[in-house]
Design goal:
Length: 542
């Protein structure tokens, strides 16, 4: 533990709190007063444009936020991250996911990365050309990725996001949950002769993945794959070659992972194998390229022009000066519908901690709750709370100028809805407006008077809009890296290690003793009364 001054106690933060007390004109007024605001608060890089003009900030607040970042040592922390310092100090590791997408080939690690990419490339080519055959000499047509958390969410999100780039006559499935139906339902329509399993686990010890991998092997054997031919249907991605080999995967078919890549930052490594199989290696390399462009943008741009820094500072501003609890991510691109779920792990596993990197209890809130879903679906569901609920929930809208579909009309409806949502959140509707509108519609005066308050939307609700020309492998790479670095910025402001996740351990350990109790000979009395009763309910049920 150290006696480092934490950010909330610094004069830079006190200054921000003072600014928070001063009434800031509402957003609509700010735009009226300064028509150039929309042009001023916009930055672009790596094929993305961030419009952050609809945020509760002015230039004085932004300058104060930049000073806060300086005070937090963001510049040095970023340099340390890219240099490969031991930023994951509880596990004594660097966090070098940026190396996985760097074209550089100078160091030993880079060379390993490039060698692994070449192996991946060879393998993908063999599968796609049919040179890799199943036990009955048929080409592989289906891949089932078995993994969880970072070994599932990133690849599943990216494979889905890049659906327009999918290799023809080839399908990818993702099984993560230990609920047996997840695997069983996925496998039911599949032909074992043309199915390849990728067992993706950095540690190769994760219970869910091991359970599903064993069940998949049993399925293949039952379906007629000879034991001696199983190797044609199972490959692995892991940092634990010994365990993967013990499972029965030939070392030549185990693709590497490294301890300096965190699970939730690993889609760029061989963990991205299902992405490469789904969209081809050229597109996978484009994904890496887009992310690398964002890395460079983050590494060298000044804070005022730096997208991850701006997003991180704005979120910090809302969490800590406005007491917001959550942040909504609303992609108006259907293929990004898994992006919020991916971000939940990225952000909440990285920032959901109660002590700083020195072990001191945080004297502010940790990271918050990330949630959202693809627009326009959310509009007919939870957007009501965004517009009229009592909580302030900042939101990120994500949209593309062009669709992969030729239905321009529908795409323009999609964009209209996206822009109208951020506009509505900002402008809201006053009681007077609602009342006037009702009268105009011919509502009787008494009814209009009564109904108007229900229609009030307070407005002045902040949002960012992130635009891209199209969702391509490169823009997806940039978008994903943008959020990775945003999370890093927040971690620096919190003086937190973003790269460990000790909190998930307790549940894992307890689940193994609960499992023992569920399968033991006598009724359970060893836990608390509620847990005992739940366990005994299962036991009594046979
Ligand atoms: O849920 C905890 C976690 O450790 C994640 O951080 C990780 O992505 C996931 O489990 C899967 O781990 P592995 O790749 O080792 O199976």
């Amino acid at each position: 533990m150290t006696d480092r001054v934490s950010l909330p106690q610094t004069p830079e933060w006190q200054k921000l709190l003072e600014l928070r007390q001063k009434p800031l004109a509402n957003l609509s007024t700010l735009f009226r007063e300064e028509p150039s605001r929309a042009r001023r608060y916009i930055v672009g890089a790596a094929g993305l444009v961030l419009d952050y003009s609809k945020n509760l900030v002015d230039s004085e607040i932004l300058q104060a936020l930049f000073a806060l970042a300086e005070r937090a040592g963001l510049r040095d922390a970023t340099a340390a991250l890219f240099r490969g310092d031991e930023v994951n100090n509880t596990e004594h590791r660097p966090a070098l996911h940026m190396l996985l997408r760097s074209p550089g080939n100078a160091g030993a690690r880079e060379q390993e990365v490039h060698a692994a990419l070449t192996r991946l490339e060879d393998f993908v080519a063999k599968v796609h050309t049919g040179r890799w055959k199943g036990y009955s000499d048929k080409a592989i047509r289906t891949v089932v990725n078995i993994g969880i958390g970072g070994s599932d969410l990133g690849p599943a999100m990216a494979a889905e996001a890049l659906a327009p780039y999918h290799v023809r006559n080839f399908t990818c499935h993702f099984v993560s949950n230990v609920d047996p139906l997840h695997l069983e339902q996925t496998l039911a329509p599949l032909d074992p002769a043309t199915t390849l399993f990728v067992i993706a686990s950095k540690t190769f010890t994760t219970l869910e993945t091991m359970q599903n991998a064993n069940a998949a092997r049993a399925w293949a054997l039952t379906a007629g794959v000879p034991t001696t031919e199983l190797g044609k249907h199972f490959v692995a991605v892991s940092a634990n070659v010994e365990k993967a080999a013990a499972f029965g995967i030939a070392p030549a078919n185990i693709f590497p992972m490294w301890d300096w890549v965190g699970g939730r930052y690993s889609l760029w490594s061989a963990i991205g194998l299902p992405i490469a199989l789904a969209v081809g290696m050229d597109n996978f390399r484009e994904l890496l390229h887009g992310a690398h462009q964002m890395d460079e943008h983050f590494r060298i741009s000044e804070p005022a022009a730096n997208m991850p820094v701006l997003l991180g500072l704005l979120t910090y501003w809302y969490y800590h000066a406005y007491g917001t609890e959550s942040h909504a991510v609303l992609p108006y691109v259907q293929n990004l519908h898994l992006f919020p779920a991916f971000l939940q792990q990225l952000d909440m596993e990285s920032l959901g901690k109660q002590v700083d990197r020195d072990g001191n209890k945080l004297d502010s809130q940790s990271g918050g709750i990330i949630w959202g879903s693809a627009g326009t679906n959310g509009q007919h569901s939870f957007h009501q709370l965004l517009h009229q609920g009592t909580r302030l929930i900042p939101a990120d809208f994500i949209a593309a100028l062009e669709s992969h579909s030729s239905n321009r009309e529908a795409h323009l409806h999609l964009l209209s809805n996206c822009f109208a949502q951020s506009q509505a959140l900002m402008e809201g509707k006053s009681q007077m407006q609602a009342h006037a509108e009702l009268l105009q519609q011919g509502t009787p005066a008494a009814e209009a008077q009564w109904l108007a308050p229900f229609k009030v939307c307070p407005g002045n609700r902040p949002s960012n809009t992130i635009m891209m020309r199209r969702l391509t492998p490169a823009t997806l790479g940039a978008l994903t890296a943008l959020y990775e670095h945003k999370v890093f910025v927040q971690s620096v402001l919190l003086n937190m290690n973003a790269f460990d996740q000790w909190g998930v351990e307790l549940g894992k350990v307890l689940s193994s003793s609960v499992y023992q109790a569920l399968t033991a000979g006598s009724s359970c009395t060893r836990f608390d009364a509620s847990t005992n009763a739940l366990i005994n309910m299962v036991r009594d049920n046979g």
